[in-house]
What we know:
- The structure holds 2 protein chains of 2 kinds.
- Helices cover 49% and strands 21% of the residues of chain A.
- In chain A, α27 packs antiparallel against α29.
- By secondary structure, chain A is of the alpha+beta class.
- In chain A, the strands form 7 sheets. In chain A, strands 9-8-7-12-11-10 form a 6-stranded antiparallel sheet, with helices on both faces. A 6-stranded antiparallel sheet of chain A has the order 15-14-13-18-17-16, with helices on both faces.
- In chain A, β19 (541-547) and β20 form a beta hairpin.
- Chain B is an alpha/beta fold.
- Chain B is built from 9 helices and 5 strands; from the N terminus they run βαβαβαβαβααααα.
- Chain B has helices at 15-27, 38-44, 64-73, 89-97, 110-143, 146-156, 161-168, 172-186, 191-201; strands at 7-11, 31-35, 51-56, 80-84, 102-105.
- In chain B, strands 2-1-3-4-5 form a 5-stranded parallel sheet, sandwiched between helices.
- In chain B, α3 links the parallel β3 (51-56) and β4 (80-84).
- Classes of the chains: A alpha+beta, B alpha/beta.
Amino acid sequence: MTTNNSITRCFRVCIGLLFFTIPTLCAQAASPKRVLILNPFARDVEPFNAAVSSFRAVLVRELGEPVDFHEIPLELARFTGPEGESPLVAFLEERLTSQPVDLVVPINGAGMQFAARHRSRLFPEAQILAAAAEPRMAPRILRGEKTGQIPPQILDAAVPINDRRELRRWNISEATLPPGSITQFLQPSFWEHHRWQVIGVISFGLLPVALITGLMANRNKQRRSEAEATMIADISSKFVNLPADQVDHEIFDAQRRICELIEVDLSALWQRTERHPGSFTATHLYSLEHGPQLAGERTDDDFPWVRQEILAGRVVAHRSLADMPAAASKDREAGRKLGIKSHLTLPLSIGGQSPIGILGFNTTRRERDWPDALIKRLQTVAQIFANALARKLADQSLRESELRLGLAADSAGAGLWELNWVTRKFWANERARAMFGFSPDEVIGLERFQASIHPGDWDRVWVAIDRSVRSAVPVEVECRIHSGDGPVQWIISRGRPFFNTAGEPERILGLSMDVTGRKRSEAALQASEARLATGTELVGLGYYEVDNAAPFSFVDERFEEICGIPAGRQEGLQALQFWIDHLHPDDRHMVLGEREKLHDGTAQQLSIEYRYQHPSGGQKWIHHLARVVERDANQRSVRIFGVLRDITEQKRAELEAQELRDNLTHLSRVTTLGALSSSLAHELNQPLGVILSNAQAAQELLAQDPPDLAEVRDILDDIVTADRRAGEVIERLRALIKRGQVSLQAVPLNQIIEDVLHLIRVDLIRRGVTVVPELAADLPHVEGDRVQLQQVVLNLLLNAADAMATNGPEARRLHLQTVLHEGRVRASVRDEGPGLAEDPERLFQPFYTTKDQGLGLGLAICWSIVAAHQGRLWAEPNAGRGAVFHFELPAAGSPDSP
Amino acid sequence: MSTPSGIVHVLDDEPEIVKALVRLLRAKGFDVRGFTSVRDFLEAYRPEETACLVLDVAMPELDGLTLQRRLTHQGILIPIVFLTGHGDIPMSVRAIKAGATDFLTKPVDKTLLLPAVIAALQVAESRHRTIVETADLAARLARLTPREREVMEHVVSGQLNKQIAADLGTGEQNIKLHRMHIMKKMGVESLADLVRAAERLGLGK
């Protein structure tokens, strides 16, 4: 095809040449010369008339031939502008086409300009000679001498051009030329005169050469064009199914080939990156000299105008930076810095969307043009790149998305699967396969799937799947996996159906998770709850839970029974309120106080006993245990578990036992007091003796004459005093005997000991016992019952005295010591008697006695008194001889005190 | 009976008791002194005076029986009437054995107290008398020459003059002479009295 075209063209050229040559040869044959005189003014403007006439005369005379003169008054003053002239020009054109002229003679400058303006329309072939020019030029021109060709474009400037060499030849001074003329005529030469002949000869001679050359040039061009097209086709095919990871490499390669082929130094591809989302960053830079470049951080911020053009979808192509418009000054500057000479910049867009990138080609060595064909070709390349990049991006997104999905599934321990509804086959990922017991490669059809599900659950599973597909609802089903001999595994599966555009089910996408662990925990929890329920039932505990965060509370049946909460009342915190309302008023403060300690974090557990007023059962005693299971950040309780136990019976038994103990203690006290008879007698006999002697003295005095009444009055006073003292003694004794409530107070042990010593002073003297006291000063008080502690001291002292009864007089020393020992108050009673015969522990057992008339309860009761005071009573052999009895009590205010 | 002479010391650790007893006894015409501490009593006591002591047995400072013992060891033979807040047979027996005149329980009625005090004073007096007499005899003895002393010892042992003369290597007449002087110096009139006096002085055993 191409060869045909070349030959045709050659042929046309030849013919054209011929045709062109012949008429010009013939043109030498004469018809009268026609001269057009352009008069810018109206006809008959006198000075010009004369000039014209003179001109005409000279011309005719010199030429010696007939000349047709046509004078056209232009009346240019009539027209306001070039547009106004057009009717005139049209008229002239019509006339001149049919009758072409050989010479145009404008009268003056205006005429000259008119002629120049419209030359191409009116008289493209004619010569123009100003009337003011040398008249003798006219005939020579008409004879065929040329003043030279006027290059077409210069005429556009509407300024007549004259050849300087011509002017010299004709002896025309430039001063006589119309204003605004430019002198630049070419020297007519042999070539000018005989141009066409020469051309004809040459062309004939050169025809074959031209043909060949033309053919060759065409072929080169064709070849280059082919090469370009081939390259583009090649690039295009390369990019068709290009894996995303090779895109960048291929882009560089394509850039290289293009640069090499079209001889361009630099190619750059720009895209949006995450770093600079607002601009385009050069991601692929290829330099012909250096090869692929690291793009660096170059953004197109330096080229705002180009960017603007690109974003508007326009191609930017400039041969040189100077060609860029004024608005692109910044771009120009940037380009200059980079040494860019010519540049072509194309948008990368897909479909009709906004460009996703920019493709640019730059030269740095030479300037060049950008033919449209090339631009079109490169636009194709840009398209290819754009598509590839878009696909790569999509691919990347897809991959990332897949990765995320995979990670999520993995971290959740989930298996992913897809059921293709059309083929009824499953795709499952590694984990799903492992979960269901499929091997890594096997094809999973519905039967295979069914086989993996526990038979008892299959119906449920299938119904769920079916319903999902029918009603477009998600699948959610728990089922057991049939994995042969292993333990039962529970799987929960969730899936979602997808439909095609016709609304038919296409596939279900889902994931499954192994919940065996959870199921086992659930089972364990159920078992545990059952155990708890059984346990509490057997023990008779009422169980409750309070959750302050929810808030809710739970009480079980037994709790309701114990508290007498009527059935049918509403759930929740009302049960709690009922319980609070029915607490015994005397105990309520304590109970709520302890409960608050639990709530605010002061205490971790609650263990209290209190009275409760059951609505129908009267007063009950309740033992209440509770514990905080969960606390918030401020250590306030959030969840509490607790149990109640009805201990009314127990409490009653306890109280009875306590009463018995009290009786016993009282009995013992009384018994002990019995042993104090001598002391008691003495205590009472003292005041009685005073009274008796005083009274008898008074009697004597009154018998005298005169009686000393003053003395008698004194006597009576003393009698009264003594009587009162007797009363006090009796009172004290009564207090000692009285069975009172145990009252805990902070009491000074030293004082108690001294009181007792005072009480038994006489006894001790009678027995010849000397007391050696070593009572520590500043001994802290102990918390206890004064009377009971007196009893203990009394007992120990009397025992010690008894132990030494058979000793010699100098060996009846009773050492009495009080001391503070490790925060506890310790009293020790040391005797020099025979010492401990038995195991010290036996001493404190009830009914153990070494005395003939003892009950054997004294030490046992002392022991229990001391124990009740959170203390300890024990005996040791005395170093030397005898025994020592110690008792220790916590100091009042210490955490151990009762 | 008339109130015997002599001082009654009352010693009890309780001032009220002392006061009451002093009142009572004084009202009865005794010469009474009251003390609440042993030291005060010992300071005030004059052995040459006829006195008795009414003493509380149970005193924290020093129990009565111990005091009694101490007084005895010091040679103070003051008769004591013990008072006690409670009756205790062993104690009373002990006290009497140690030389107490009486042992009474408080509250003590005057009908018991007064006779006890009188008896004690009488004992004091008789003891006093005895002491005086013995002192007199001792003075008389001191006036004997050594030879006379010697002779006296033989005489009170019941030897005849003749025997004494033979033992001592002297004539019977001398002995008779000595005997006459001794009788005169010693202020006795019969051999029996001389023997009694010698006994009293602790001679011849």
